[in-house]
Design a protein that fits this description.
Layout: H1 2-14, H2 21-36, H3 42-53, H4 57-61, H5 67-84, H6 88-93, H7 100-114, H8 118-135
Helix pairs in contact: 1-2, 3-5, 5-7
Length: about 140
């Protein structure tokens, strides 16, 4: 939301004009169009990770804390942040209303493991290639 407002202000300055409803509509139309072209969503990442680990998307959104569910959930949160640029609260919302601090913890944990855990690195690399495949259509 703040980014959209910044864009409107920047366009007004660039065009040396006042902010108007028409200007805001024009700027926002471009932003929405660009977002519609994005094939990678939090939901599409959840599907890819669930398929990869042989589980259901619903498991990723659950409260269950078993390692075989928690680790894929953390990987999914990490990938969602990396590929969608969604905020921590937005990501948490797509995981059954998890708090933003849970998402921050997940992202940091996966980032830390990526340098040290070969299995984690292989899984994340493989999933990243699948997601990048979605991005290219």
């Amino acid at each position: 939301m703040r980014g959209a407002l910044t864009n409107i202000i920047a366009h007004a300055k660039l065009l040396n004009t006042e902010i108007s409803l028409d200007l805001a509509k024009e700027v926002l139309k471009k932003i929405v169009k660009n977002q519609d072209n994005r094939l990678v969503t939090i939901e599409s990442i959840q599907k890819e990770v669930a398929n990869f680990f042989g589980m259901r998307v619903q498991d990723l959104k659950s409260e269950r804390k078993q390692k075989n569910i928690a680790v894929p959930r953390q990987i999914t949160m990490y990938l969602a942040r990396r590929y969608t640029g969604a905020s921590y609260p937005e990501i948490g919302e797509k995981f059954g209303g998890k708090d933003h601090s849970t998402v921050i913890h997940a992202v940091k944990k996966i980032e830390k493991l990526l340098g040290n855990d070969l299995s984690m690195t292989k899984n994340v690399d493989s999933l990243s290639r699948k997601i990048e495949g979605l991005m290219s259509g």
